[in-house]
Amino acid sequence: MTSPENDDGKSIRLLQRFGELLYVFDVKAHGKWFVLATAIGIVAGLGAIAFQVLTQVVAHYALSNVAGFPILEPHGEHAFLEHGDKDLSPILLVVVCIVGGLASGAIVYSLAPEAEGHGTDAAIDAFHNKGGAVRSRVPFVKTIASAITIGTGGSGGREGPIAQIGSGFGSYLASRLKLSTRDRRIMLAAGMGAGVGAIFRAPLAGALFAAEILYSEAEFEADVIVPAAMASIVAYMVYCLSLPADIRYRPLFGNELHYRLTSPLELLPYGVMAIVLVIAAAIYIKTFYGMHRIFKKLPGPPHVRPALGAFLTALTGLGLWLLFGKNPHALAVMATGYGTLQETLLDAADIGMPLLLAIAALKILTTSFTIGSGGSGGVFGPSMVIGGSLGAAVGLAFHDVWPDVVTRPEPFALVGMAGFFAGAANAPISTIIMVSEMTGDYSLLLPTTYCSTICFVLCRRWKLYQKQVPSRLQSPAHRGDFIVDLLEGIKVKEVYRRDLTLIHIPEGLPLEMIVHRVAETHQHYYPVENSEGRMIGIFSADDVRKYLYDDAIWKLAIARDIMVSNYLYVTPQDDLNTALERFTQLNIDELPVLDDGKSRRLLGMLRRKETIGFYNRRLLEQKSLKRELT
Question: Is 390 exposed, middle or buried (0-12, 13-18, 19+ CB in 10 A)?
Fold first, then answer.
């Protein structure tokens, strides 16, 4: 009988052999990324199932059975357990929230403190600053803690936890296979996209999310898109297999939403809504991180702070519930709030403008309490509820004053979902696609793109994900890449000087004459040519100095005897990256520029200082152009 240690050792050795096998195959030609992305997708899909079931189990036995909390689900969601119809007990709800906060805080801060908060930032930070490395325990801790936080009424979303689950496995697999740091970063991002694509049933958006969310400017991590797309598709299929056949491929918010842009004039109200969303996004981010700083300064162990945040969240939810006559939709400021968002997308007037505005405002507060205190959960879900509620409220207002143009307020809820998160998270493209996939409605792409673009442009001063970097240029993960890219775009023919007068040395010239020529000029490198004008070697002034005090050899040696015949050179078509590699290869300051490698006719010399100077000028031009464009 084998011991657990031996079994674990065998598993590790098998993974290592698998990694060695992958190195034999070329990435593009033999489908290495197809194999890796499939493995990541399977685990991310299973992780999404486990997280969803665990969250529902906690919510069923804690919120529903104990506190009588009405759990409202979107139409495309599958309830693995049937919830009861017990009346809500305010006292028990507060108790459940506090106990959930205590349990979540104890698990996170005892086992993996980096699992606190919304999770996506931790994955972004690992990509940029940690070579894609994530501790293997983080996904498990994040899964349990987030399920407890959301399942006991905390205002949080699911994208943060599932992003860490997928990215954590991608990082773990890459480390076990001993892949490169670059591969590990790609696998981490692919895992993040796979998890998001699965749990929101938005495979295309998951792939784009993984590539776009890393940067705050309009930039994608191109290397990530294809592996993330493969992994996201597989994860989506695995997750859908856990659902009943009648809703297996249904969008998260059902397929009843079919709205249209009724008039070009409707873009005016959408533009006004975009301004409102920008203001709300700025308040959201300021409140979120302001509350985070306040909780950080509180005395005592961090383990109990999530309980305080949960307590404040419960009081806020109960206060709104009582204020609106025990309306169950008022409790959308707690838990995910997706059920109320579903109703908003179908009939915003049934909820009413006052409650929609209250939900949008207080969801900002409860999310800040829950996540800012150290609770575990995502910020995408709350952003959808805030943006959807606020958008619906704006739609209702315009429907009242301009009914001929704004015939229905519900499309404003859908567009508001996308616009709010696009601005807050600096991720317009993936958000537009994700909202469309979640609602199954692509007919509003024009106003959605219009509104999201306005929000993205006007929200550049704030960002919900603090670990985002502006672009690849500022990312530590790509330190040096931009330099290489820029150098590869510059040819030697743009840099070397053709007007320099160079002394060419015939191969048979005696050393005595060479010494005098060197003494009379400031040239440092001397090309040696044969009778056909072909460059056959080169020597430097330093090479000649070795013979200054040995005049006996002056009449015996010739240029061929002191030259270096195996010399480095460049051609006009070579790029500056190639030139710099050759400069550093032998630590030389000049390189001969030849017309080609066959005729070897000398055209001039390329100097290291001139090369670096040209690069610096081009870099300043690029930065100046970028500032003008922004």
Answer: buried
Q: Is 117 helix (H, G, I), strand (E, B) or coil?
A: strand
Q: At CA 168, angle to CA 73 and CA 118, rounded to 5?
A: 50
**pLDDT value of residue 532:** 87
Write down the residue that tokens 């665990």 correspond to. 54
Transcribe 148-209 into DSSP letters.
HHHHTT---BSHHHHHHHHHHHHHHHHHHTT--HHHHHHHHHHHHHHHHHHHTT-HHHHHHH
* Helix extents (H) in 373-459: 380-401, 410-425, 428-439, 445-458
Q: What is the DSSP string of 64-107?
A: ITTT-------TT---SS----PPP-HHHHHHHHHHHHHHHHHH
Query: Residue 154: pLDDT band by 50, 70, 90 thresholds?
Result: very high
What is the spatial distance between Cα 83 and Cα 164, in angstroms, rounded to a whole number?
29
Pairwise CA distance, residues 447 & 262, whole Å: 11
**For 478-521, what is the HEC assignment?**
HCCHHHHHHHHCCEHHHCCECCCCCCCEECCCEHHHHHHHHHHC
pTM: 0.77
> What is the rounded distance in angstroms from the CA atom of residue 570 to the CA atom of residue 604?
10
CB 418 within 8 A of CB 450: no
Q: How confident is the model at residue 9 (pLDDT cuts 50, 70, 90)?
A: low
Q: What is the largest CA-CA distance in the chain?
A: 111
Token pair, residue 146, equals 């987030």
For the record, the structure tokens of 516 come out as 């005098």
List the domains of the chain with CATH numbers.
Answer: 11-478 (1.10.3080.10), 485-618 (3.10.580.10)
The token pair at 602 is: 């000398």
Q: Among 316, 281, 302, which residue's Cα sits nearest to residue 372?
A: 302
CA–CA gap between residue 496 and residue 483 (Å, rounded): 19
pLDDT single digits (tens) 322-353: 999 999 999 999 999 999 999 999 999 999 99
**Which tens digits make up the pLDDT trace of 363-409?**
999 999 999 999 988 899 999 999 999 999 999 999 999 999 999 99
- The residue length of the chain stands at 630
- Which tokens sit at 244? 């009943």
